[in-house]
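thread: overnight batch results

M.L. [08:02]
morning all. the overnight job finished for the chain we discussed friday. pasting input first so we're all looking at the same thing
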Amino acid sequence: MAQDAGRAAGLVMQSLRGNPASGLGYAALARLKEAQGDLAAAGRAMETASAMAPRRVDVQMEAAAFWMRRGNMERAMRHWDVALTFGTELHPRMFPQLLKLAENPARLPAFAPLLLQPVVWWPAFFEYAAGNAQRVDTLHALFSLQAKGPNTVTPAALRAFLARLQREGQWVDAYFIWLNGLPKDQITMIGNLFNGGFEYRISNAGFDWIADQVPLVLVETAATHGSTGSRALHVVFRGSKTGYRHLRQHLLLPPGTYHLRGRVRPESLETAYGLQWALRCADKKETPLAMSELFIGSDQWRHFSVPFTVPEAGCAGQLLRLELAGRATLDYEARGGIWFDDLSIEQQRLD
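M.L. [08:03]
and the structure it wrote out:
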């Protein structure tokens, strides 16, 4: 095509006579007509190519590239949809390109028609965008477009979106998006602390408990004697030497004075100093607002209480986290278990 357009045309027509249903053949013809400046004929040939090979990834990518060159992104998106649906290996290459288009306000509206129908690859793309978008406004726009169609946000994609909003300090937006996604039966658990009785399984999203997986540490909600409801929080250390700080909940408390309250039952918990709850401003994790007493050894169920104050400024979001106390690596070796139940945060009222 680059060296001898006439010969290229002959070869393309010879190919199509040999296989008149070849999508690749018509895609080659479209490129040829485009190079010759016959854009109408090129468009017709590319439409035929797509119809002849409706699931061929390479043909659909050719069609998408053609319509992008023609400035028709909405049409290109339809072909990318097919290519990404049947060619999952394209995701690492195409997702950055699609995100770049989404971050251009002039290009973003082209996503809307696509999202009016189910899009198989969309959850994976949105999760990628949540972690890689330069501007969080792009994520808000994509989330809004998604909400208008049948592409319901998946738990993994929602988790990534909420985590990004929290990293960006958009605490109120994150809270209400998380709240709107809760099952109806969990709305009753809303308070200063969510699911403090651990009756629901940990979702690892938003303002619920988040438990990172750590080798030799088990975190679960399970039945046990003495619990208020049917479940309580159970944390078991099996010789872990990690400075454990991997169970947490983000909070959205207004300035004021509070008490963190709960019940605890350690079971042969062996560690250098013990385990405790720490509460910090989310943006100032190095300075605790409060630290609970240290839990260690074995005991029956008992209550504990920790007072703390959220300052007037600089603490829009907070973080409650379960932590192993220690000063050196050897201090963090831990064995045994511990149970927690009835965790709550109550604001002190000024009469």
